[in-house]
Amino acid sequence: MKSKRKKRRDSKKSMVNLAPMVDITLSLLIMFVLSIPFLIESGIFVQRAAAGKARRTVKIKQEQTKVVIYIDANYNLFLNEEKVSEDSLKKLLPELLKRSVTGRVVVSADSVVQYSRVIHIIDLSKQLGAKSVLILKRRSKSRA
User: Fold this and answer.
1) What global pTM score does this model have?
2) Does the structure show a pLDDT above 90 at 8?
3) Which residues contact residue 99 at a Cβ distance below 8 angstroms, ignoring those fewer than 6 apart?
């Protein structure tokens, strides 16, 4: 009889309660999964000035701007008002940015230009050393 009781006690002692460990593991897993989007965040962050302030405070003076890239309706690139190819842009842009005090690039495009092309030029500018990229909206010719 004593041996049976002893076996029962031993079996009760040897059982490990895994519920707290499973709870903690699942909690950590959920926190990890929820925090992934914050760790791997990519995109373009745009700060938009208010319409009234934009006309007064965001005007860019010609002497401050060293690098202006314009994409016309035919997808031609213009660097500081001179027509260039994308390959020559890759060569000229780093040199202009080295001479620029602010390291700022201004990108503008006609309204018919696809976003993907503008984003490509913004990415290229950042890869080639631009510290900041400004995006300007072109006014239509009927207003000017």
Assistant:
1) 0.56
2) no
3) 66
